[in-house]
Amino acid sequence: MTRVIRIIKESFRMVRNNRLRGFIMILGIAIGVTSLAMTVCVSVGVYENVMETVNKQGPDLIQVRPGTDKFNSPAAGSREAVSLRDEDYEAILQHIGNIDSISPVKDRKEIEVKYEDKNTHTRIFGVNPIWGRVRDFNAIRGSFITDEDVASAARVCVIGQIVKKNLFGDADPIGQTIQIMDVPFTVKGELESKGTSSEGRDRDDRIITPFTTYNMRVFRDSPLSQIVIKVKDIDKLYKTVEDVQAVLREQHKIETGEPDDFTMRTPQDLIDMAYGTSRSLIKVLTIIAVITLLVAGIVIMNIMLTSVSARKSEIGIRRALGARKNDILNQFMIECIILSLMGGILGTILGYCGAIILSNLDVSASNLTPLALAAAIVSCCLIAVVFGIYPARKAANQNPVDILRG
Amino acid sequence: MIKIKDIEKTYSKNSVETKVLRGVTFSVQRGEYVAIMGASGSGKSTLMNIIGCLDRPTKGQYELDNINVLQLDDDAISALRNKKFGFVFQQFFLLERTNALDNVLLPLIYTDEYPADAIQQARKLLVNVGLGDRIEYFANELSGGQQQRVAIARSLINNPDVIIADEPTGNLDSESAAEIMKIFSRLHEERRTIIIVTHDRDVAGNAQRILELKDGQIKG
What we know:
heterodimer, A: about 400 residues, alpha+beta, B: alpha/beta, Rossmann fold, six-stranded mixed β-sheet, four-stranded antiparallel β-sheet
């Protein structure tokens, strides 16, 4: 049994011998680590959420919308602006090389749709298949529109669950023919239910048609509501963004220095958007974690200092019996680290519980990840060392004679 | 084995200097049983602390087994205390909430040669001082005499060259004191070197040789 092991054993024994001190220290650390673990769980959870959104939509995606999102620019309020047209789409196709696939998007609200004697009003989309993948609209029955449908301008459509209910009730819609603006379309699929979007739009009340069909057979010459571009070479994503921007500015004859009359959105914008309110929550949590960890450190220092003066005679005895200064220092540091780690483990568990509560309150929080655990353990040891070293040094540097005489 | 020459010790407090030891010279042979006697304030505890390497003299020379003690650094001095000395104090100085066995084992935490049979050795020492039935008792559950016997067992665990006892009977009733002195006499018979510091002439009478300390100097 080496000296270090004997001192570690002795430290454990002294921790058992000073239960009240230990309890207070564990509590102090636990509170600090709880907030830290919660912060990590929430941060990781939000990050995972964001990344899931980005990855689902594609990290290689550029979206172009008409008008501008920016409030203070001259084009403010022109969100419905008719600034994207078929010619713009064609110009992009012609000039931009780094495109894997692309979908122009058109849509119109409140369109009358009929099936036999029933009718309903819904929103009609004209898109390419890539749009369904990007927006995560999939057919749960039948199939989504295909490239062939687009190429042949087939009169086929995929309907949302609300449309299905309104027109077909419980009957099977697949293969049936419905009238959209008196043009007959064959239903080839049902969309999976998506519920309401964050903007309050019912995402089940819609019909998806091939872009070419929409454009040629239903609404000629209507403006584009969006262009979705999936780039081929992701490394050139931002170069492609610039190129598309240049093409559109050229198309729209926008003078240098004038603002765009369209808005481009990249994965980075998506990340920024997806973080949204979570970002400020993470900031607040981080600040709380730092403060509570600091308080925990002060608690440690205070209790350790009290402990050092309460255990003066113990230190003197050990020194008289042959303990070197470093042996005393090590003993006090090990005791401090033991208690901090115990507090850390307790705090991690509490923090995990806290994160679960938060996730029930609609904040995305991850499970107890190795990262959260590692962060808790590392921070505990760090706090123990930073705030424990001064009291431990004070203990070690006492003169044995002074202690024994006192 | 102990050679002390012209030891002086001066304490300064609030810039007032007090000379406690004024040139103490003596030596102790291996196996000797020496008592250092003196009234309170004569500097006998200071001298004991210096012999036991708990304190350093202001001036003088100290050789222990031909080692110049005063040249050693703090770690070496700590190791020396651990290896060469066994301490018995007036206030016992056991660890509370620690049983007799662990108290006896305490010096072995800091040794470089931890014996494989440490626990058996400690038990044997406790049996030898008559505490075979108190091995698991906490220090604070023992009487004064019993605590001092634990302290003696502790002072022997590292098989020291010198046992240093500072008023070992000072806090004990006469019956316990007599038992403690009997143990010291027995240790002397086992050829151990013992230095005992006391103001009590009866206690000092057990020793082979008495050094009287007066006004910071050895008398006679």
